[in-house]
Every structure is written in C-alpha cells, then in structure tokens.
Amino acid sequence: MNKILPILTVVAAIFVLWYAAAIGMNKKWALDQAGRAGIELSTNDLIADTWSQDRPVLPVPHQVAQELWKTTGAMVLKGRAMSKRSLIFHGWITLSATLLGFVIGTGAGILLAVGIVHNRAMDMSVMPWAIASQTIPILAIAPMIIVVLNSVGIQGLLPKAFISAYLSFFPVVVGMVKGLRSPDGMQLDLLRTYSASGNETFWKLRLPSSMPYLFTSLKIGMAAALVGAIVGELPTGAIRGLGARMLTGSYYGQTIQIWSALFAAAILAASLVGIIGMIERRMLKRMGVKP
Amino acid sequence: MTWLIFAALFWAATWYLNSWIANGPHAKTRAAKLAVPVIFGITIIVVWEALVRGLQVPSVILPPPTAIAAKFATSIPILWQDFFQTFVKGALSGYLIGCGAAFITAVLIDRSPFLQRGLLPVGNFIAALPIIGTAPILVMWFGFDWQSKSAVVVVMVFFPMLVNTVQGLAATDSMQRDLMNTYSASYWQSLLKLRLPAAMPAIFNGLKIATTLALIGAIVAEFFGSPIKGMGFRISTEVGRLGLDMVWAEITVAALAGSAFYGIVATIEKGVTFWHPSQRG
C-alpha cells in the first residue's frame, strides 16, 4: 500500500505536466487559425482547442486513448479485428516477428552458453567477443540485414525475426554463462562425492541453479527483441507492423497515430515482460528458490 | 574450391591452437587471455574472406573484409564527417545532457523517500519500454539536424541513468550514515564525502549502459530524417544503392566508436572506484 500512493502521485504528475505541455505546444496553431478566422479566443476556448486538434504537435492522453480504442476495441466490436486499419493487426505482425526471433535467439544463446561452460577454448575465444559486442550499436545493421535477406529472396517475417534473435542472443549468453557457473565449489564437490557424471551435474545442479539468471536475461532479451522487430520495420518502408505505423505517421504528420502506435508498443512490451515475470515467480516458487 | 579447403584447414588449425593454449599450463596468464580471443577474431575474418571468395558470394550480399577495408581507407573524409555529425554532435551532446539531467534529478529526489518510492518503479517501467519509438516524434519537433538526434539520446539514456543513480545513492548502510551523523556532518558533507563516492559503482554502471544506448539512439533517429550526412543516413541510403561495402565501413566505425566510448568510461570508472572489490580483483 505504501508503494501505490507514491506511484499514483508520480503518474498523476506526469499527466498534469503532459496536459500543460500540450497547451504550450499546440497554442501556436490554435492562435493562427483563430487569427485567420478573425476570432478572438478566450482562455477556455484556447485550452479546449489545444486539447482537441486533429494534428496536434503533442496529442493529449485522452486523444491517444480514444485513437487506441478506435483502432482496437471498436474494431473488434465491429468484427474487423484483422482489418488493415486495426492496431491489433499491426501489433500481431510485430509480435509474431518478436516471438519467433526471441525463441531463436534464446535457444541459440542457451546452446552457446552450455558450450562455453563446458569447453575452455570456446570460453576463452568467444566470451570476450560476446561481451564486447554489447558495446556495439547492433541495431545500426538492421536495415542491411533486411535488404540483404530481401535480395536473397527471404521476405516478410524472417528478416525481422533475425534482428530480434540477434538482439536477444547476447544478453541470454552472458546471463546463462553466469548462471551455469553459479553453483559454488561445495555443491560441485557434493555431486563429485556422489560420483555424478558431467551430464548429471548439468541437469541436476547447473541448469536448475541457472534459472534465476535465465529469467533476468529473458526479460532483457524480450524487451530487446521487440525493439529489434520495430526497428526492423523502419528502413524498407514496410506497410505493416507497429514500426510501419510510426513511419507512415511521421510521413503524413499523423501525430496521434504515432503516439497510439508507441503506446501499443509500450503495452506490448510491458505485458510480454510481465508474462515472463509471472512464469518466473511461479517456477522459482515451485523450485523453492527464495524470491 | 581451394579457398573452401583453405578456410576449413585454417579454422581447424587455429581452433587446435586455441584449445592447446586454453588447456595448456599458461592458460591463466594475461598473454593467453589476450591471445585466444585475438586468434579467434582473426580466424573469423580469414574464414569470412575465404568463404566469400570460394563460394563467389556477390558483394551486394556480403562483401569480403578486404573490400570493406579498401572502401574504409578510400572514404575516410566521408566517414569522419558522418562520425562527427552522428557521434560528436548527436550522441555525445545528448549523452552529456541526458546523464547530467538524470544525475541532478536523482540527487534531488533522493531527499524525498516519497518521490523515491514513486519514481523508481515508474522509471524502471519506462526504461524497459521501446523508447526508440519516440524518435519520429522528436524528429518532428526538433527538425532534421543533430538537435533531434540529441533529444532522442537524452530520452533514451535518462531513465536507465536515473534508476542506477538513485539505487547507488541508497547503497550506504545505516552504520556508515550513523558515523557521519556522529561527526555532525551536514547534508552536503555526507552527500559529497559518503554517499556520492559510495554511489559511484552504480552511477558508472548507468553511464556504461548509456554509452551503447546513445549511439543506437543517434543512428536510428537518422532513419526518420536527417541532413545529407550522418552514419544512420549513410547506412540507409547506401543500403538502398546496394553499396554494402560502404555500409560495412560505417558499421566498423560504429563498432569502433561504441567500443572506444565504452572503454573510456570504463577506464574512468577504474580510476574513480579503485576501492571497490570488483576493481581490486
């Protein structure tokens, strides 16, 4: 309870600031229009106008919420949930690329981590590069991957998923290596006294004790995969997906459309990370790991 | 065919060499720790070159490293101009403004536990969102030049930096704070002499995360509109013209700049937090 009140206060403060900023930023256009029509705007009219423009510089929250509802819930009620104007459709395009990439990236990451833990040569040669590659702006090569795969004839979902996979790959590798190495000498010694084979040590000790680390990196990887899928939709002028909605919005000055796509992406990211967090809590509880 | 056999042999030879070093008696020395990844990197480049030549991959799909190096050497003025536009004007200015603002905000909200409890979860939440999506909005507001890239970077680095600094300022334990109290230290004295130094590992963690974010933000923001220079602009236009060697040259610049930026921050960290267990190793 003593957490909810401060959070609500901060969120409320953000909303107040947002509405106030919208007045300041949209004022010029409103005054321009009024000046051309030869009307003198009262303060109340001015505020009402800045909060209800069609193409505001900064749309206010209720406009974004209306647009979100219009392109999701209202579409579902009309039975056109998968129409091209529906954000559910665009969100699904992005989500499918994100999930596919996430699964590929996580799988490859876990495999590489297992290899690194069991092979010293691999550890010494690959690990420094895996860490160094995190300092490189990998997203910059997204357009190249898209175009190159396009010219080879691979189109649609896979190139975007590839970028997502690449972005979620390294956090998982680094996290899993840390996790698989987390059992201390005492525990490893115990298994040795049981004369456990390397295989048994892996399945019964290393893998279970790496779970907390795995979930932390899964959350980072999921957020990165979504960013990858969105950025993957930008460079080729894609017409479907949340990134494409942002791009077309910025071409045609449809600010409300950009903001609604942005919020859809944010909601998507929050729920994906939330789902992983939920699985994490369930699983760690059953395994008896303290939260 | 000879190229392919050469690639396979080279791979096998260097892999054997690496596992010999890694399992040998000198594996723990500094030289071995440096040599093994370097050999691995060289192997990747040589095998890449040999595979591209052997399989005759067209250069619009994957140019060989030698072609990239040649392009890099001949177009240094363009690369420098792009680097200056994107990195120095866009990323660096945004990085300084964003991290500075986040640091000041963190010190201010640190005085109020109420704000701390409210801002930390919100900040953590926002830090996990795809903030890069604000790029088209900010490009609209601030125009095509570096100001908009700088703004994107500010938004991207602000929350990770804020969260890390607030956590760092809370890192002292009550014993240490009590000691400052018995010295009757003022707020500023305890901030400057105890809590800021103790917060440095966390602050530098935030600064290091922000280096990568800054470069990504500046490059991706250029996809939404830019003047006719800049790394993101060059990448997206050269990709359109299938000038892949130029794209790889820009990626090399981005990789070098990113690693160097990170390296500089990490070196400063080593000097500032010399007392921390992770640095004494």
Describe this structure in words.
The complex is a heterodimer of chains A (291) and B (281). By secondary structure, chain A is mostly helical. Chain A folds into two domains: 4-58; 87-287, MetI-like fold. Chain A is built from twelve helices and no strands. In chain A, helix 3 (61-71) packs across helix 12, helix 5 (87-118) packs parallel to helix 8 and helix 7 crosses helix 8 (157-180). The N and C termini of chain B lie far apart (49 Å). Chains A and B meet through helix 1, helix 6, helix 7, helix 10 and helix 11 of A and helix 1, helix 2, helix 5, helix 6 and helix 9 of B.
What Rg of chain A is obtained from the alpha carbons, in whole angstroms?
25 Å
Pair with the most extensive interface? A-B, 61 and 64 residues
Percent strand of chain A: under 5%
Q: Give the CATH class of the largest domain in chain A.
A: Mainly Alpha
CATH superfamily of the largest domain in chain A: MetI-like
Low-pLDDT residue intervals, each spanning 5 or more residues of chain A: none
* CATH class type of the largest domain in chain B: Mainly Alpha
Mean pLDDT of chain B, rounded to whole units?
86
CATH third-tier fold name of the largest domain in chain B: MetI-like fold
Quick one: how many beta strands of chain B? 0
- CATH homology-level superfamily of the largest domain in chain B: MetI-like
CATH architecture annotation of the largest domain in chain A: Orthogonal Bundle
Beta content of chain B comes to: under 5%
Q: Mean pLDDT of chain A, as a whole number?
A: 83
Judged by helices, strands and strand pairing, the structural class of chain B is: mainly alpha
Helix content of chain B: over 70%
Secondary-structure element pattern of chain A, one letter each: HHHHHHHHHHHH
List the quaternary state of the chains: heterodimer
For the record, give the distance between the C-alpha atoms at the N and C termini of chain A, rounded to a whole number: 20 Å
Radius of gyration of chain B: 24 Å
